[in-house]
Amino acid sequence: xxxxxxxxxxxxxxxxxxxxxxxxxxxxxxxxxxxxxxxxxxxxxxxxxxxxxxxxxxxxxxxxxxxxxxxxxxxxxxxxxxxxxxxxxxxxxxxxxxxxxxxxxxxxxxxxxxxxxxxxxxxxxxxxxxxxxxxxxxxxxxxxxxxxxxxxxxxxxxxxxxxxxxxxxxxxxxxxxxxxxxxxxxxxxxxxxxxxxxxxxxxxxxxxxxxxxxxxxxxxxxxxxxxxxxxxxxxxxxxxxxxxxxxxxxxxxxxxxxxxxxxxxxxxxxxxxxxxxxxxxxxxxxxxxxxxxxxxxxxxxxxxxxxxxxxxxxxxxxxxxxxxxxxxxxxxxxxxxxxxxxxxxxxxxxxxxxxxxxxxxxxxxxxxxxxxxxxxxxxxxxxxxxxxxxxxxxxxxxxxxx
Amino acid sequence: xxxxxxxxxxxxxxxxxxxxxxxxxxxxxxxxxxxxxxxxxxxxxxxxxxxxxxxxxxxxxxxxxxxxxxxxxxxxxxxxxxxxxxxxxxxxxxxxxxxxxxxxxxxxxxxxxxxxxxxxxxxxxxxxxxxxxxxxxxxxxxxxxxxxxxxxxxxxxxxxxxxxxxxxxxxxxxxxxxxxxxxxxxxxxxxxxxxxxxxxxxxxxxxxxxxxxxxxxxxxxxxxxxxxxxxxxxxxxxxxxxxxxxxxxxxxxxxxxxxxxxxxxxxxxxxxxxxxxxxxxxxxxxxxxxxxxxxxxxxxxxxxxxxxxxxxxxxxxxxxxxxxxxxxxxxxxxxxxxxxxxxxxxxxxxxxxxxxxxxxxxxxxxxxxxxxxxxxxxxxxxxxxxxxxxxxxxxxxxxxxx
Lengths: 402, 402
Description:
The structure is a homodimer. In chain A, strand 4 (164-167), helix 9 (173-183) and strand 5 (188-192) form a beta-alpha-beta unit. Chain A has a nine-stranded mixed β-sheet with strand order 1-2-6-5-4-3-7-8-9, sandwiched between helices. In chain A, strands 10-11 form a two-stranded antiparallel sheet. Chain A folds into three domains: 4-74, no CATH class; 108-316, 3-Layer(aba) Sandwich (Rossmann fold), CATH 3.40.50.450; 326-385, Winged helix-like DNA-binding domain superfamily/Winged helix DNA-binding domain (Arc Repressor Mutant, subunit A). Chain A is built from 17 helices and eleven strands. In chain A, helix 8 (145-160) packs parallel to helix 9 (173-183). The first copy, chain A, is of the alpha/beta class. The A-B interface holds A 146, 149-150, 274-279, 283-284, 287, 290-291, 294, 297-298, 300-301, 304 and B 146, 149-150, 274-279, 283-284, 287, 290-291, 294, 297-298, 300-301, 304.
């Protein structure tokens, strides 16, 4: 029986031998376990000719196990961590990628779309928890002022309602969505197509640092990995499958952003598009998506987005756990106040009252009750959810061991 | 047996007794004929209480038959004409209004949507022929620069492909669509909610004169009739039913323009909407339409519009009339050249060659052939379709007698 460390090393080595998403590798690892799968591949036993050639070329270049060990050491030096399906924080939702079949797929990135073998993560939040209530906001690099405005507003409004924003790391719509979420003090996740230590594009370095401080930088590639062109499309399946829905804000004709939406549709997740002026080249892709896919939904703002992902969110929410939880004793007002509490950070009474739809005196009365029940804690700058009922969240500076 | 003149007078009188579209009046006229229906109503024999009251109030105000005779005289003085279902130029398509049932209709204009009893028309084209290949382009009065631009381009491009543009007479999108069509030398039809002699709004007077010169001004109300508020909505059903499809370019929330689209959908015609910036109040109505009606189609330009109405157009096109037409002898190039000829006006050889997708020498060769077959005529300023194979079109200045 292999140890978890051996299995993690094998997963890293497999990721190095063939790009993430490669179906034959994923299936081999699922059937034999990563350690035996690695041994088989290194012994030249790949199940198909193409994979055998790929592995042979890689092996001629270096020792897969040594490369993996070096990646682990480098990850530790960075203060990042490696997350595998064996970790509690692994986002279970990614398993849906096993069923992803794109129509008319002719390029390799459209057929090799199986789930990731492991992630590199920078940032303190458990990955699965961060993605639990998340929406992807994606779009063109060469965004217009209009698109940038809409993406920033959308990132802000999602974060303000305690939804996690997920995007890539590109200029334009991606960066605007992250900035919006950061401005709202919310949680934002950048899924990169290169190492989490290697900001690409360089111009977004300061943004990546802000994201790593309060959100997450995530990648399927080890530290130092280059942002090779096909990796952006390989990465897109993770953005589509890791979130409850994908919104395309602006996209030119046949852009990568609309491909993320196609991946979302292919696994039954809502794909949404923001319309724009028909005179704008940056709205051609969103309009195409809306015209060509009967299931793609036109959205003009976060209320529309939440209509789509809310349904899915409700479906995926854990069922009630039994009759004797402290919240069962709450009346409607107290429940509203509790539900209006931000997932993270503190909130003032006035803001809370307005979010809960109650007057300030009611809010104060219900907060006292919630404090007594240890559901809410008073802080210097307002009220926060009490940490007790939530699963242990790893804070920045305490990375999990790989 | 009544004469056609008596029947026309009765239709006018009925239109005066109750607003056009009133279901009980339309059905009475359909069952008894307009003359007997008028007699019945004037004798106090209206089939329902409401209509009896409406008629009584009108009759207290004047003599219906005298009002009708005066309307006929005034129409003749104007150089306009009255068109009834007994005329060859009546647009048969309007009969579809008999089946119009709007969901959730609670206002009278949403339930009284039967076909018109007669039209007043200014302009030389036979009404039915003008509407045969027509698209409605409608939208907000308070259009933005974006909407005005899109409507003008759309009017131009439709007219350039020999489609008739149909709209109301309002500022904003309506006026822009007409101007686009006029700039392309095309046929445009303004359906008014007041008399055809009574330009409303006044600011569009010059536009109405241009439309009457080369296109048509059409109304269900006699000369001198006021543009009362409900009449705009009553009128909208004619725009929806008289055309092969309705495009809403810009509309605020719950505007009259989206109601035209709803009427089009209710009788199975394509309803289309042009998206715009989500930050624009003038695109709220178009986005609503696209979100709420699964059959409403997002269009970004005339090629998309023609995709929708083209199918309907093909359905409604008369079947081939037999094997011995002169066009049967044509080869592909000659047929392309003939099909590229504008429906009206002349075209230069270069433009024609480019529209037909042939080189100029081929175009000239095929034009000689088409001339010999009397399908095309050479003019001082280019080539035109020969008048012979087309139904006799009334030219301006030769109005039909009512």
